[in-house]
Amino acid sequence: MSLSLSQTTQFQINELAIVTKGGKLDIQNLFDELNIFDSILQPCMSGNVLITDAIGLSSKLLLDGSEFIVMDIGKDSDDLRIRKSFRIYKQSNRKNINQTSEMYLLHFVSDEYVFSQQQLINSGFQGTYFEIAVKILTEKLKAPSESWIKGVFTKSHGIKYFVVPNLKPIDAIQWMAKRAVNENMVPDFLFFQNKSGYNFVSVSSLLAWPEIFQVNFDPKNIEDSTANELTGARDIRVISQYDLIDFTNSGVAAGQFIGYDPITKNFSTKNMSFLDVQGKIKNGNETPNLLYFKNRNDVDNFEAYDSRKSVYNFTEAQKYSSYIKTKDPKSITTLDDTHNYVFQRKTIFSNLFQQRVRITLPGNFAVSSGYNLFLKIPSRAIHDDGGYCEGGDNFDRTLYGKYLIVGTRHIIRYDKHETIIEVCKNSSSKSYGAVDNTEFREAALNYGGAVA
Fold first, then answer.
1. Contact at 8 Å (CB) between 347 and 278?
2. Residue closest to 271 by CA, chosen among 248, 301, 303
3. Residues in CB range of 392: below 8 A, 6 or more apart
4. Distance between CA atoms of residues 10 and 198, nearest Å
5. Would residue 372 count as lying in a domain?
6. Does residue 57 belong to any structural domain of this protein?
7. Domain count, the chain
8. Same-domain pairing of 202 and 122
9. Which of 198, 241, 386, 396 could form a disulfide with 379 if both were Cys (CB 3.0 to 4.6 A apart)?
């Protein structure tokens, strides 16, 4: 990328204005800080702007939620700009600075979210969850094509005939995302908005994409290259490396689904281990996140099915009921395949968030939730023998690899633009080999015992 900037945190505001009943008001000289958020866990983009007001703007505008904020901000490349409008839905933290000025926050969100709060859906639909999500987005939310045409929509598996149970449109799409499965029967769909638009997409599809760039961890100013500095980490923090308790309690290692069908009176149990769920998911890196060991009973944690039990209504048996096939065959197409997502979905996202890293970058609107980055974080160690870490280089293999961006925060002040991102991965580039830890386990369990 070619940029004519002397500093990577520089930016250009082409427009930043509030659209009111009386017209458009430029606030470029009034704002102190602008924050823009997006996340794969939130359906819509949002943000806030801190205003220092010495002209009585708040009392003159009589803010009531009918206003919009429009922005066209970025660098000299279309990929590094944001050009969007949002609904201002709340004013908060209003306080006096002195006798002639005050400051307050204006909160904004995509207008589709506000429109969604004004209506309910209680209708029947037929088709795949993917098709119906698009239908609700365009017909119920009336989302303009530019707000979703560049987004990603992954086809879900299975024709469904169902009734949306009196939900708001955005809640209905999220309700479907939690039940949708891909062609491999993996329930990892998400509905969210990023810079490109709205997305109804599986995590497996996201992880299969190439990374948009490699984050640079070299010391600054080593190379006279603005492009390298633009992708250079200004700060990095490892939020989570692994969590064995969560890994166990979430059923990532092993668990059991217990289903009961009140119609056919059938009761079913199904044991699930790591490979039954995680083995179907596409990984961004070579080795899945494996926390493997044997417990005191000499049982693999991947076989400890009591770690988590999910009890839920189970309708699979109705598909094979001759009575239902004869008397009400259409109802079979409306069955909720709870055995395909109730247990599995939690394990997928618990495993995905096992390893999380927060990075501060120079302001960059090309970075957005749902995209991938590649991290080559240097090893923080001195090698006395002059050798290298595993892999023949000096990188930390526990952190090395491709990561999914799960959330971004763009912070724009009058003199600086920074982007804070949170990334995670469900796999690593480190090699893994199962070993017999019996001797070491016994020694550790008996450590500190009675001395003969």
1. yes
2. 303
3. none
4. 28
5. no
6. yes
7. 3
8. yes
9. 396
Q: Is residue 440 part of a domain?
A: no
Segment 69-97 mean pLDDT: 88
Q: What are phi and psi of 148, to 5 degrees?
A: -145, -15
Contact 69, 86 (CB under 8 A): yes
In this structure, are 121 and 157 located in the same domain? yes
14 pairs with which residues across the strands?
A: none
Q: Are residues 16 and 105 in the same domain?
A: yes
Same domain, 16 and 28: yes
Quick: pLDDT tens for 363-419.
Answer: 989 999 999 999 998 887 665 554 445 555 688 888 999 999 999 999 999 889 999
Per the domain annotation, does 232 fall within a domain? Answer: no
Q: Residue 256: beta bridge partners?
A: 271, 309
Of the candidates 358, 348, 346, 347, which has an alpha carbon nearest to the alpha carbon of residue 240? 358
The CATH number assigned to the domain holding 49 equals 2.40.10.10
By residue range, what is the domain housing residue 275?
Answer: 244-349
**Residue 219 · residue 314 · CB < 8 Å:** no
Among 71, 93, 110, the domain-final residue is 110
CA atoms within 13 A on the CB side of 350: 23
The answer to whether 80 touches 1, Cβ cutoff 8 Å, is yes
Contact 73, 12 (CB under 8 A): yes
Tell which residue, 344, 342, 272, has the closest CA to residue 314.
342
Q: Do residues 255 and 330 share a domain?
A: yes
* Distance of alpha carbon 78 from alpha carbon 114, whole angstroms: 28
% of the chain at pLDDT higher than 90: 54
For 223-245, the pLDDT digits (tens) are 545 557 788 888 999 999 989 99
